[in-house]
Structure to design on (125 residues):
């Protein structure tokens, strides 16, 4: 079992930055593909960013490319999402997810095995 706990969300003005953390326990996630997703009220959960098993490959949703960066710190068993130049449309609950197998990048929520409880990000105009 893997437990994931997100933190770092909050209220920020447009143009500001936040750094989300996803701390894992139960197993090391150093070789797991990891993803970040978000869900705004009344909308479906959507892909934001992904990191492959080695950390060598990343990908982003078009709406966040160039503004968000996913990374991992294996020593801390933690994955991060650095979010810069935030916009009101980035407002959502953000979730991290872990997949225990595979060497690719994965874009669908159904492809992940473990999820955190989410952290709220609110961007004011």
């Amino acid at each position: 079992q893997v437990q994931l706990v997100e933190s770092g969300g909050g209220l920020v003005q447009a143009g500001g930055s936040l750094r989300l953390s996803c701390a894992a326990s139960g197993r090391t996630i150093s070789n797991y593909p990891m993803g970040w997703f978000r869900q705004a009220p009344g909308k479906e959960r959507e892909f934001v960013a992904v990191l492959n098993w080695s950390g060598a490959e990343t990908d982003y949703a078009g709406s966040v490319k160039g503004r968000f960066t996913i990374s991992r710190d294996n020593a801390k068993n933690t994955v991060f999402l650095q979010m810069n130049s935030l916009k009101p449309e980035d407002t959502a609950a953000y979730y991290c997810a872990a997949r225990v197998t595979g060497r690719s990048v994965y874009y669908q929520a159904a492809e992940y095995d473990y999820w955190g409880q989410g952290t709220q990000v609110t961007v004011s105009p």
Notes: The two ends are 40 Å apart (CA to CA). Residues 31 and 51 are 10 Å apart (CA to CA).
